[in-house]
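Sharing a chain and its predicted structure for anyone who wants a worked example. Both blocks are below, sequence first, tokens second.
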Amino acid sequence: MTLETIEDSLVNGFHDAVIMEMSRDYEKGTASLRVDILIDLPPDAPDEANRWRCAELKFTGVTLWTVETPDPDSAFPHPGGIWFVPNSMKPDVWSDAILARLPKDCLRYSLFVLDWHSNIHIAATDVEFRWL
């Protein structure tokens, strides 16, 4: 599966999605994100608008996982979830030497963290999605 496939399957995609927890298992080659997904938007019924649901994005076959340093003027010192926008990774994020060592079927994503003004970069062979 890909993040694009997952996003297309969600009513609002990853619009206003929030990372609540991140974990990386180096031994198993996985990385997991517990995220809150917006499942309703106005003009839904007022009592049902802006409802959220918890889900897990699990990356498998993780070769590389890097977190950029937040912008010093960003909201990084404050606790709480972080808003993100997933994108395909730009080719200049990692060096050509690193890219050459990644598996050919590797998915590469950058999650732009709006609260930090920086990215989380992930290279993995697959991504899974499940509601929690």
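Comments welcome. Residues 63 and 123 are 6 Å apart (CA to CA).
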